[in-house]
Protein backbone atom coordinates (compact mmCIF):
# COMPACT_ATOMS: atom_id res chain seq x y z
CA UNK A 1 0.00 0.00 0.00
CA UNK A 2 1.42 3.35 -1.07
CA UNK A 3 1.25 6.09 1.56
CA UNK A 4 -0.58 9.26 0.50
CA UNK A 5 1.57 12.24 -0.40
CA UNK A 6 2.15 14.50 2.61
CA UNK A 7 0.34 17.82 2.58
CA UNK A 8 2.21 19.36 5.52
CA UNK A 9 5.95 18.85 5.96
CA UNK A 10 8.19 20.09 8.77
CA UNK A 11 11.90 20.47 8.05
CA UNK A 12 14.38 20.82 10.90
CA UNK A 13 16.90 23.16 9.31
CA UNK A 14 20.67 23.55 9.71
CA UNK A 15 22.45 26.17 11.81
CA UNK A 16 24.83 27.87 9.34
CA UNK A 17 24.00 30.46 6.68
CA UNK A 18 25.51 28.55 3.78
CA UNK A 19 23.84 25.33 4.86
CA UNK A 20 20.47 27.06 5.04
CA UNK A 21 20.89 28.37 1.50
CA UNK A 22 21.79 24.87 0.30
CA UNK A 23 18.73 23.53 2.13
CA UNK A 24 16.60 25.45 -0.36
CA UNK A 25 17.52 22.75 -2.88
CA UNK A 26 15.70 20.29 -0.60
CA UNK A 27 12.69 22.60 -0.30
CA UNK A 28 12.47 22.86 -4.10
CA UNK A 29 12.78 19.08 -4.41
CA UNK A 30 9.92 18.58 -1.95
CA UNK A 31 7.75 21.12 -3.75
CA UNK A 32 8.36 19.38 -7.06
CA UNK A 33 7.67 15.95 -5.61
CA UNK A 34 4.58 17.03 -3.65
CA UNK A 35 2.93 19.94 -5.50
CA UNK A 36 0.76 21.95 -3.15
CA UNK A 37 2.33 20.64 0.05
CA UNK A 38 3.07 23.23 2.75
CA UNK A 39 6.69 23.26 3.89
CA UNK A 40 7.46 24.75 7.30
CA UNK A 41 11.00 25.09 8.63
CA UNK A 42 12.16 25.12 12.23
CA UNK A 43 15.47 26.92 12.50
CA UNK A 44 17.54 29.42 14.54
CA UNK A 45 16.26 32.97 15.03
CA UNK A 46 18.77 34.53 12.63
CA UNK A 47 17.41 32.48 9.71
CA UNK A 48 13.81 33.72 9.73
CA UNK A 49 14.30 36.62 7.33
CA UNK A 50 16.46 34.50 5.02
CA UNK A 51 13.81 31.78 4.87
CA UNK A 52 11.34 34.53 3.99
CA UNK A 53 13.30 34.96 0.75
CA UNK A 54 12.62 31.34 -0.25
CA UNK A 55 9.36 31.01 -2.15
CA UNK A 56 8.98 27.34 -1.22
CA UNK A 57 8.80 27.98 2.54
CA UNK A 58 5.30 28.41 3.97
CA UNK A 59 6.21 29.24 7.58
CA UNK A 60 9.24 29.67 9.80
CA UNK A 61 9.24 28.36 13.36
CA UNK A 62 11.93 29.75 15.64
CA UNK A 63 14.08 27.27 17.52
CA UNK A 64 14.40 29.07 20.88
CA UNK A 65 17.83 27.58 21.60
CA UNK A 66 21.31 28.46 20.43
CA UNK A 67 23.68 26.13 18.65
CA UNK A 68 24.99 23.48 21.05
CA UNK A 69 22.24 23.97 23.66
CA UNK A 70 20.59 20.66 24.56
CA UNK A 71 17.56 21.52 26.76
CA UNK A 72 15.42 18.45 25.92
CA UNK A 73 12.48 19.83 27.90
CA UNK A 74 12.34 22.97 25.77
CA UNK A 75 12.51 20.89 22.62
CA UNK A 76 9.80 18.52 23.83
CA UNK A 77 7.43 21.37 24.70
CA UNK A 78 8.03 23.00 21.33
CA UNK A 79 7.26 19.74 19.58
CA UNK A 80 4.12 19.21 21.63
CA UNK A 81 2.93 22.70 20.68
CA UNK A 82 3.18 21.71 17.02
CA UNK A 83 0.88 18.70 17.29
CA UNK A 84 -2.11 20.81 16.25
CA UNK A 85 -0.48 21.50 12.88
CA UNK A 86 -0.87 17.82 11.93
CA UNK A 87 2.33 17.44 9.95
CA UNK A 88 2.50 14.18 8.00
CA UNK A 89 6.27 14.11 7.48
CA UNK A 90 9.31 15.62 9.16
CA UNK A 91 12.74 15.82 7.56
CA UNK A 92 15.56 16.32 10.03
CA UNK A 93 18.65 17.73 8.30
CA UNK A 94 21.07 17.78 11.28
CA UNK A 95 22.37 14.40 12.41
CA UNK A 96 22.34 15.19 16.13
CA UNK A 97 20.10 13.33 18.58
CA UNK A 98 18.62 16.53 19.98
CA UNK A 99 17.48 17.74 16.56
CA UNK A 100 15.05 14.81 16.29
CA UNK A 101 13.24 15.52 19.58
CA UNK A 102 10.82 18.15 18.24
CA UNK A 103 9.36 16.02 15.40
CA UNK A 104 8.98 13.02 17.73
CA UNK A 105 7.23 15.16 20.36
CA UNK A 106 5.00 16.59 17.62
CA UNK A 107 3.91 13.00 16.84
CA UNK A 108 4.66 13.39 13.15
CA UNK A 109 3.95 9.98 11.56
CA UNK A 110 6.95 9.87 9.19
CA UNK A 111 10.23 11.19 10.57
CA UNK A 112 13.03 11.09 8.02
CA UNK A 113 16.73 11.60 8.69
CA UNK A 114 20.17 10.06 8.63
CA UNK A 115 21.13 7.56 11.28
CA UNK A 116 23.38 10.04 13.09
CA UNK A 117 23.64 9.80 16.87
CA UNK A 118 21.69 6.54 17.45
CA UNK A 119 18.30 8.14 16.85
CA UNK A 120 16.33 4.90 16.80
CA UNK A 121 12.87 5.59 18.21
CA UNK A 122 13.04 9.27 17.37
CA UNK A 123 13.24 8.54 13.63
CA UNK A 124 11.24 5.90 11.80
CA UNK A 125 12.49 6.56 8.26
CA UNK A 126 16.20 6.16 8.87
CA UNK A 127 18.49 6.68 5.89
CA UNK A 128 22.08 5.43 5.74
CA UNK A 129 24.64 8.08 4.79
CA UNK A 130 27.32 6.86 2.40
CA UNK A 131 29.67 9.82 2.14
CA UNK A 132 31.49 8.22 -0.79
CA UNK A 133 28.23 8.41 -2.78
CA UNK A 134 26.85 11.65 -1.37
CA UNK A 135 30.03 13.71 -1.36
CA UNK A 136 28.42 17.13 -1.50
CA UNK A 137 26.46 18.60 1.38
CA UNK A 138 23.64 19.61 -0.95
CA UNK A 139 23.36 16.04 -2.27
CA UNK A 140 22.81 14.84 1.29
CA UNK A 141 20.07 17.39 1.83
CA UNK A 142 18.24 16.68 -1.43
CA UNK A 143 18.42 12.91 -0.90
CA UNK A 144 16.30 13.25 2.24
CA UNK A 145 13.48 14.57 0.06
CA UNK A 146 13.51 11.54 -2.24
CA UNK A 147 12.02 8.10 -1.80
CA UNK A 148 14.05 5.78 0.42
CA UNK A 149 14.78 3.52 -2.56
CA UNK A 150 15.74 6.34 -4.95
CA UNK A 151 18.94 6.01 -6.94
CA UNK A 152 21.78 8.04 -5.41
CA UNK A 153 23.37 10.50 -5.81
CA UNK A 154 20.41 12.58 -6.97
CA UNK A 155 20.37 13.13 -10.72
CA UNK A 156 19.05 16.68 -10.31
CA UNK A 157 20.13 19.28 -7.76
CA UNK A 158 17.83 22.32 -7.95
CA UNK A 159 19.69 25.60 -7.72
CA UNK A 160 18.79 27.86 -4.78
CA UNK A 161 17.19 31.14 -5.74
CA UNK A 162 16.57 33.93 -3.24
CA UNK A 163 13.99 36.61 -3.97
CA UNK A 164 15.13 40.22 -3.96
CA UNK A 165 13.28 43.05 -2.21
CA UNK A 166 13.70 45.86 -4.74
CA UNK A 167 12.17 48.47 -2.43
CA UNK A 168 14.61 47.59 0.35
CA UNK A 169 17.43 47.57 -2.18
CA UNK A 170 16.58 51.13 -3.27
CA UNK A 171 16.38 52.26 0.36
CA UNK A 172 19.83 50.81 1.08
CA UNK A 173 21.32 52.42 -2.02
CA UNK A 174 20.05 55.80 -0.87
CA UNK A 175 21.02 55.24 2.77
CA UNK A 176 24.65 54.50 1.92
CA UNK A 177 24.87 56.88 -1.08
CA UNK A 178 25.61 54.00 -3.43
CA UNK A 179 25.23 54.06 -7.20
CA UNK A 180 25.64 51.66 -10.09
CA UNK A 181 27.08 54.08 -12.63
CA UNK A 182 30.17 51.87 -12.64
CA UNK A 183 30.20 48.06 -12.42
CA UNK A 184 30.22 46.81 -8.84
CA UNK A 185 32.40 44.05 -7.41
CA UNK A 186 31.33 42.83 -4.00
CA UNK A 187 34.00 41.57 -1.59
CA UNK A 188 33.00 39.28 1.27
CA UNK A 189 36.30 38.76 3.09
CA UNK A 190 34.94 36.94 6.15
CA UNK A 191 34.09 33.35 6.99
CA UNK A 192 32.19 32.46 10.16
CA UNK A 193 34.03 29.15 10.47
CA UNK A 194 37.46 30.68 11.02
CA UNK A 195 40.59 32.32 9.54
CA UNK A 196 41.76 29.16 7.75
CA UNK A 197 39.03 29.93 5.20
CA UNK A 198 40.03 33.57 4.67
CA UNK A 199 42.14 34.93 1.82
CA UNK A 200 44.58 37.50 3.29
CA UNK A 201 43.13 40.99 3.77
CA UNK A 202 46.19 42.56 2.15
CA UNK A 203 45.38 40.57 -1.01
CA UNK A 204 41.81 41.84 -0.94
CA UNK A 205 43.16 45.38 -0.54
CA UNK A 206 45.52 45.09 -3.50
CA UNK A 207 42.79 43.52 -5.63
CA UNK A 208 40.41 46.36 -4.71
CA UNK A 209 42.92 48.99 -5.83
CA UNK A 210 43.48 47.22 -9.14
CA UNK A 211 39.77 46.91 -9.85
CA UNK A 212 39.08 50.52 -8.88
CA UNK A 213 41.88 51.64 -11.21
CA UNK A 214 40.09 49.73 -13.99
CA UNK A 215 36.85 51.62 -13.38
CA UNK A 216 35.06 49.25 -11.02
CA UNK A 217 33.47 50.02 -7.66
CA UNK A 218 34.23 47.74 -4.72
CA UNK A 219 31.73 47.17 -1.91
CA UNK A 220 32.83 45.38 1.27
CA UNK A 221 30.02 43.30 2.76
CA UNK A 222 29.79 41.29 5.94
CA UNK A 223 28.65 41.03 9.53
CA UNK A 224 30.00 42.95 12.55
CA UNK A 225 32.54 40.12 12.93
CA UNK A 226 34.03 41.14 9.58
CA UNK A 227 34.53 44.81 10.43
CA UNK A 228 38.18 44.48 11.45
CA UNK A 229 39.03 42.72 8.20
CA UNK A 230 37.13 45.27 6.15
CA UNK A 231 38.79 48.16 7.99
CA UNK A 232 42.18 46.66 7.16
CA UNK A 233 41.16 46.48 3.50
CA UNK A 234 40.05 50.11 3.40
CA UNK A 235 43.38 51.19 4.86
CA UNK A 236 44.96 49.74 1.72
CA UNK A 237 42.09 50.69 -0.62
CA UNK A 238 40.40 53.80 0.82
CA UNK A 239 38.04 54.14 -2.17
CA UNK A 240 36.32 50.85 -1.37
CA UNK A 241 32.90 51.29 0.26
CA UNK A 242 32.85 49.53 3.62
CA UNK A 243 29.31 48.36 4.46
CA UNK A 244 30.30 45.62 6.89
CA UNK A 245 28.31 45.48 10.11
CA UNK A 246 25.92 48.19 8.94
CA UNK A 247 23.21 45.93 7.56
CA UNK A 248 21.10 42.90 8.38
CA UNK A 249 21.63 39.60 6.59
CA UNK A 250 18.72 40.13 4.19
CA UNK A 251 20.04 43.61 3.40
CA UNK A 252 23.26 41.96 2.26
CA UNK A 253 21.18 39.72 -0.02
CA UNK A 254 19.70 42.80 -1.70
CA UNK A 255 23.06 44.57 -1.98
CA UNK A 256 24.78 41.52 -3.44
CA UNK A 257 22.06 41.43 -6.07
CA UNK A 258 23.25 44.85 -7.31
CA UNK A 259 26.81 43.61 -7.84
CA UNK A 260 28.06 42.35 -11.20
CA UNK A 261 30.31 39.82 -9.50
CA UNK A 262 31.58 38.92 -6.06
CA UNK A 263 34.93 37.77 -4.71
CA UNK A 264 34.61 35.74 -1.55
CA UNK A 265 35.88 32.98 0.66
CA UNK A 266 33.98 29.71 1.11
CA UNK A 267 31.32 31.20 3.35
CA UNK A 268 27.61 31.63 3.84
CA UNK A 269 27.68 34.82 1.79
CA UNK A 270 29.27 32.88 -1.08
CA UNK A 271 26.18 30.67 -1.18
CA UNK A 272 23.92 33.72 -0.94
CA UNK A 273 25.73 35.33 -3.87
CA UNK A 274 25.25 32.18 -5.95
CA UNK A 275 21.56 32.13 -5.03
CA UNK A 276 21.11 35.72 -6.26
CA UNK A 277 22.54 34.85 -9.67
CA UNK A 278 25.77 36.80 -9.27
CA UNK A 279 29.02 35.62 -10.84
CA UNK A 280 31.13 34.21 -8.01
CA UNK A 281 34.92 34.08 -7.75
CA UNK A 282 35.29 31.71 -4.81
CA UNK A 283 38.51 31.24 -2.84
CA UNK A 284 39.00 27.93 -1.03
CA UNK A 285 41.59 27.17 1.62
CA UNK A 286 40.93 24.73 4.46
CA UNK A 287 37.73 23.46 2.81
CA UNK A 288 37.11 22.02 -0.64
CA UNK A 289 34.74 22.78 -3.52
CA UNK A 290 34.23 19.03 -3.84
CA UNK A 291 31.93 19.22 -0.79
CA UNK A 292 30.45 22.71 -0.75
CA UNK A 293 30.69 24.36 -4.18
CA UNK A 294 28.72 27.49 -5.03
CA UNK A 295 25.49 26.18 -6.57
CA UNK A 296 25.66 28.08 -9.83
CA UNK A 297 27.17 27.68 -13.28
CA UNK A 298 28.44 31.26 -12.96
CA UNK A 299 31.45 30.54 -10.76
CA UNK A 300 35.22 30.52 -10.95
CA UNK A 301 36.85 28.38 -8.28
CA UNK A 302 40.32 29.18 -6.94
CA UNK A 303 41.57 26.11 -5.08
CA UNK A 304 45.12 24.79 -5.02
CA UNK A 305 44.44 21.34 -3.59
CA UNK A 306 47.72 21.18 -1.67
CA UNK A 307 48.80 17.95 0.00
CA UNK A 308 47.58 19.35 3.33
CA UNK A 309 44.20 20.35 1.89
CA UNK A 310 41.45 20.12 2.83
CA UNK A 311 42.21 20.09 6.55
CA UNK A 312 38.82 21.54 7.63
CA UNK A 313 40.53 23.30 10.54
CA UNK A 314 39.44 26.71 11.80
CA UNK A 315 43.06 27.88 11.94
CA UNK A 316 45.94 26.74 9.75
CA UNK A 317 47.73 23.88 11.58
CA UNK A 318 50.99 24.80 9.82
CA UNK A 319 50.67 28.49 10.57
CA UNK A 320 51.50 29.66 7.04
CA UNK A 321 48.08 29.54 5.31
CA UNK A 322 49.84 28.50 2.11
CA UNK A 323 46.61 27.13 0.62
CA UNK A 324 45.28 30.69 0.38
CA UNK A 325 48.45 32.79 0.28
CA UNK A 326 49.55 31.00 -2.88
CA UNK A 327 46.36 32.06 -4.64
CA UNK A 328 47.80 35.25 -6.07
CA UNK A 329 46.13 38.59 -6.62
CA UNK A 330 47.12 38.30 -10.29
CA UNK A 331 45.09 35.11 -10.69
CA UNK A 332 41.98 36.49 -9.00
CA UNK A 333 42.26 39.79 -10.88
CA UNK A 334 42.31 37.94 -14.21
CA UNK A 335 39.22 35.99 -13.20
CA UNK A 336 37.43 39.25 -12.44
CA UNK A 337 38.40 40.87 -15.74
CA UNK A 338 37.22 37.82 -17.68
CA UNK A 339 33.66 38.01 -16.34
CA UNK A 340 31.09 39.17 -18.90
CA UNK A 341 27.73 40.70 -17.97
Give structural attributes:
2 domains; Rossmann fold; 341 residues; single chain; 6-stranded parallel β-sheet; globular; 12 helices; alpha/beta
Radius of gyration from CA coordinates: 21 Å
Strand order of the largest sheet: 3-2-1-4-5-6
- Beta-strand level of the residues, as a percent range? 15-25%
CATH architecture of the largest domain: 3-Layer(aba) Sandwich
Helix/strand-derived category reads alpha/beta
Elements, N to C (H/E): EHEHEHEHEEHHEHEHEHEHEEHH
User: Would you identify the CATH H-level superfamily of the largest domain?
Assistant: Glycogen Phosphorylase B
The major pleated sheet works out as: 6 strands, parallel
Number of strands: 12
* Molecular shape: globular
Distance between the termini: 52 Å
CATH class of the largest domain: Alpha Beta
**Fraction of residues in helices?**
25-40%
Can you give the mean pLDDT? 95
CATH topology of the largest domain: Rossmann fold
Describe this structure in words.
The chain is of the alpha/beta class and 341 residues long. It is 31% helix and 15% strand. The protein is built from twelve helices and twelve strands. The strands form two sheets. It has a six-stranded parallel sheet, covered by helices on one side. It has a six-stranded parallel sheet with strand order 9-8-7-10-11-12, with helices on both faces. Helix 1 runs parallel beside helix 5. The chain is globular.
Amino acid sequence: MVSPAPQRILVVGPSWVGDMVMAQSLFITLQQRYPGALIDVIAPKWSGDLLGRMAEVNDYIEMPLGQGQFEPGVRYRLGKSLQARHYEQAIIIPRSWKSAIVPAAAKIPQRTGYRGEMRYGLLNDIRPLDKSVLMQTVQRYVSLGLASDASLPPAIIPQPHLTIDLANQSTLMAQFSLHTGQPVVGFMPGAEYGPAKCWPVEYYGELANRLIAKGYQVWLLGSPKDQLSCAAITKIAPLAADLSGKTQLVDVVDLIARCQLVVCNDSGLMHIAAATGRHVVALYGSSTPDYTPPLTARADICYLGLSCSPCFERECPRGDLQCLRDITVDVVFEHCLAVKW
